[in-house]
Write a structure and sequence with these properties.
22% helix, alpha+beta, 7-stranded antiparallel β-sheet
Length: 174
């Protein structure tokens, strides 16, 4: 399983309803049972502040600056949303999973939705994470017309921030 060696991709889309879709082709959030806490590791990543491995000086992540996709960022972000849906192709758990939060609360248990697909011609597994969320309008005063004028600015700010993070973590940036 050489899933971590494939070309890495991050996609961010702001959809017409102003929901946000974030996709990557990484290893996928771990969904197997956490040995110490006896619950799926994804629960810890989504529900505990600073629980994500990338926020610590752990093996494989030493010195990495992240954008808050794990740990405090995800725990806080989901609390400010109408819905927060995770579609995970987890390399470590060798499966596809779905988990949803509604207004910050877990809506059901983690569901296994399929097996991880192996791509023989690339000698790797199709892994990664897709998160789809919409900010909770009861927490934020958002005008659809007023907000739509800011979308190009928001996209530019997201692009600038991601480029900064990538430059801190790699020597090869396009």
């Amino acid at each position: 399983s050489r899933g971590i060696e494939k070309k890495f991709y991050i996609g961010i889309s702001i959809l017409e309803d102003f929901s946000v879709l974030i996709e990557d082709q990484g290893r996928g959030i771990p969904c197997e049972m956490h040995p110490e806490y006896n619950e799926p590791a994804i629960y810890l990543a989504c529900e505990e502040d600073s629980a994500g491995g990338k926020s610590r000086n752990t093996e494989g992540y030493k010195g990495i600056i992240t954008s808050g996709t794990h740990g405090a960022g995800m725990a806080v972000s989901k609390s400010c949303t109408e819905y927060f849906r995770l579609y995970v192709k987890s390399l470590s758990a060798q499966g596809e999973y779905f988990l949803q939060y509604l207004r910050g609360e877990r809506d059901g248990e983690l569901k296994r939705t399929g097996d991880l697909k192996y791509i023989p011609e690339l000698d790797l597994y199709d892994s990664g994470t897709k998160i789809h969320y919409k900010f909770d309008d009861t927490l934020f005063e958002v005008s659809m017309n007023g907000y739509s004028q800011q979308i190009p600015y928001v996209r530019d700010r997201i692009t600038e921030r991601l480029k900064f993070i990538l430059m801190k973590n790699t020597n090869d940036i396009e």
